Amino acid sequence: MAESLLAILLVTKSAKGPALVYRWPPLPTGHPRLSRSRPDDGSWPSRIDNPWCASHAPEVLLGHAFAPNDQSWVDDPEYRWQRPVRARSPSNQNNSPSHSPVDGSFSPPDPAPKPGEFHEYSHAFGYEVDFLAGLLLPHPSTCHQKFELLVDDLAFVGHPVCVNWEGKWEFKEDKMEKELRGKESGIMSLSLKDMPGGISITADGQTGVDHLQIFHVVLVCDIPDPSSSDSGNLFKYFDIIYEQIAFTLTAVLFQEQVLHKYVQEECDKLGALRDLSLSDREPYDVFATRCLEVSSMATTIKDLYEAIKTSRIARLRINNFPLELQLPPHLDTLLHNEDETEMNYFNPSEEDDFPGWGAEMSFGWHLPPLAPWKTLLLLDEPMRGEDGDALLDLKGPYPSTEDRCIAEGLVKFLETVTVTLSLADVANLLDWDLEGQIYPIVRWLVYSRRAKIIDTIHPGLKNVFTVPSKFDVPLSDLTTEFAQIFNHPAIPPLPRILSLVSYSISKQTENHFYACFVKSKEMIPPFHDVVIWMLKRDLLITLHLRIRVVATPDLKLRVQMQKERALARKKSHSRGRRRSLRVLKDDLDPQELGLRGFSNPGVPWLSLSPKSSSAQRLPSMDSACSEMSELAVEDEEDEYAYEGYRGLDSDWNEDMNDFGLDGDGDMNSSSIIHDPARATALQKKWLSAMSDGKDPSVAKRFEQINQYFDGKRSGDEILYRAEISRRQLRETLHHYEEYVSCYL
């Protein structure tokens, strides 16, 4: 918005007609637009004819360049892009006399007014102010809604409001309340369209004059060139401007107009001062400056414009009503292509399981995810009000108990939060709900630019940092400010610190801030202040520990050998079982089974041998059933005998299907298990084999936390989700160092 905002206008309509009451800056101008190139002389066709130029000598070309030509292109208006200027508004044209003489001969129109003292009062952006005001004041039926108008290279965004159908400034009541009021009241009101402009009939029959009928605060923006690749999401850009500036400001102004006639009184002051300045023949910029002394409305418009242009929060006071307005700090990035030099140091996967920042902070803020393992860095300057009083002093008297409880809770939170405590730790210390109490305060502090979300700082400054690709403030200014604040002899200059931080990430060990600068516990406090100062100015970026699980070739070979040995054991066991069953069937004697009392012991009534059963079978009605029973017994034996083979084949085929996925099938090279939480059957065997010979407690911990070793989750996130300490994580990584890959 700092790039595109050109001016803020206050447009009104009263009984006198539409008027542009005030604007800031006094003399707004749009960004220059490129028109088609204009030749510098009459010989331009010869200059663009390359074959002709190549076939003639330089002397001939020089002679043609200065040759006279009847057709001059220098003054051709086709090559000059100018915004059209209306000499007079339509109403003035109807009331003005005709320029045609009585005899019917043609008379040329009056030339456009030349720039001068009165031209600044009557024109803005190349248009007459009366015409522009009429253009920006819609019909009353289309008020109280979003207004967006694109004209040439200008965009007008606002929210016009008007009086109701009775000609009064009143709040819009609900439909049910209106119907109820209409039934209870027997007084018939006269419609506004049946009355003269500005006259309203009250309930008791008295008449009054409403000077102000419509007012509209308009933000004038420059439209990016449509042929440029930086046009971006233009409509989303204007939507954010409308929602966070135009609508909110108009809502407060409408409230003050309904309650106190504030806007009408301010417009009367500005109109009277304008007439006085015109009579004194003062330039418009002098008039605009004098308005700041007599009108708080003019001051509000000026402060809002300057705050937007400098990307600050506009802290306004409208008729003693405090109001803070701002646009997202990085809103202008919607108009540009993504900067390839900016690195995304935020992990998008961290936002999956946690609430976001809300609709107001979803565009143009470039915020890290709001997660429990993050912390809050309080900013010094925004924590102070306009009068210099610290915002932290919130223990004064309050009109209600609810306000006092909110203020006391905020003070307690601000006194507890530090950069070495995560938001989850703060919630535990205060015994507050993380999402219901901690997150709303964090959102408010970040939105009001009184704090920022950063990664938790180690108490011993053992964080690994890097430097951004570019700084928002020149390095020379930062160096001067740093030298004035930190004069300890052990603290090197700022350029030296930035150089060592940038170089430290190339080292495998001793690359954290403590090893590079602090080197003793006594120096932790002063260097802690250095880190805080640099983080507030976005001079440091925290690097995160990422962990991946790697299956080495030795591990793959060991798992493969275990699989083959298990297959051999199962095959041997199944063969022995089958052989024992056959011996048992051949050696069984019916006499040993209690069949000695039968008259014909040669006939086996309960034979367990399929051979004897089929050789000696008695004809009976149940023969069919007996035959099926024998077949079932034989099939059961075969199925039992080959059960081990089928189970082994199933496991083997499943493992074979895993081979070839993500390089897992290569036995001679290492393989990364990309997502241990969704590991395949073969990868699960690798993960299990990694714990062979390990301490049972460490192996159990590794089994619980290896699901987070996917290379996406940071070390702080792993500690929070796994509910372990840094020491336990470090111990686990030490025992499994041959199977894990750690990087920043």
UniProtKB/TrEMBL annotation:
The keyword Cell membrane does not apply. Pfam families: HTH_NPRL3 (PF24064), NPR3 (PF03666). Residues 89-101 have a biased composition (Low complexity). InterPro entries: HTH_NPRL3 (IPR056603), Npr3 (IPR005365). Its main location: membrane. It is found in: Vacuole membrane. Residues 680-740 form the GATOR1 complex protein NPRL3 C-terminal HTH domain. One of its GO terms (cellular component) is GATOR1 complex. It is a peripheral membrane protein. Keywords: Meiosis, Signal. GO terms for biological process: cellular response to amino acid starvation; meiotic cell cycle; negative regulation of TORC1 signaling; positive regulation of autophagy; TORC1 signaling. Residues 86-119 are annotated as: Disordered. The keyword Secreted does not apply. Mediates inactivation of the TORC1 complex in response to amino acid starvation. Required for meiotic nuclear division. Belongs to the NPR3 family. This is Nitrogen permease regulator 3. The lineage of its organism: Eukaryota, Fungi, Dikarya, Basidiomycota, Agaricomycotina.
